[in-house]
Amino acid sequence: MTKRLINEALRIVRIYWGKTQADLASTLGVSQSYISEVEKGKREVTMDLLGRYSRELRVPMSSLMLFAEEIEGAPPMTRGRLFMAGKALDLLRKLIPDDLEETV
Fold first, then answer.
1. Up-side HSE of residue 92: CA atoms within 13 Å toward CB?
2. Do residues 93 and 101 touch, judged by C-beta distance below 8 A?
3. Which ranges in 1-104 belong to alpha helices (H)?
4. What are phi and psi of 10, to 5 degrees?
């Protein structure tokens, strides 16, 4: 199984909020090893787990779902990278606290 963008996105959002895998596992009701396996791409991300990440880390599930989508075909490498970099930036912008948005 290869690591997908969704696995990395979940890790990035967890780290952004300053949560350890153990912290998040405790609040999500799963083991730390389960979180680790998901983030490493060794386990598939279920819709249930995605919803729990969404609620706990205050990220719209629709934003996380973007990273679960496969890009069809084989786009030129630079185009695909630019597309995903843009989506990652959009996700990070949504995480900016409301009181800081005006300065960004």
1. 12
2. no
3. 5-16, 21-28, 32-39, 47-57, 61-66, 77-94
4. -65, -40
CA distance 54 to 11: 12
Assess whether pLDDT exceeds 70 at residue 74. no
Are 53 and 11 in contact, with CB atoms under 8 Å apart? no
What tokens were used for 44?
A: 């598939």
| Cβ proximity of 63 and 12 under 8 Å | no
Compute the half-sphere exposure of residue 80: CA atoms within 13 Å on the CB side of its CA: 11
Q: In angstroms, rounded to a whole number, what is the distance separating the alpha carbons of residues 44 and 41? A: 7
Does the domain at 5-103 match CATH 1.25.40.10? Answer given as no
What contacts 53, CB < 8 A, 6 or more positions away? 10, 13, 14, 24, 28, 59, 64
Q: Does the model's pTM come out above 0.85?
A: no
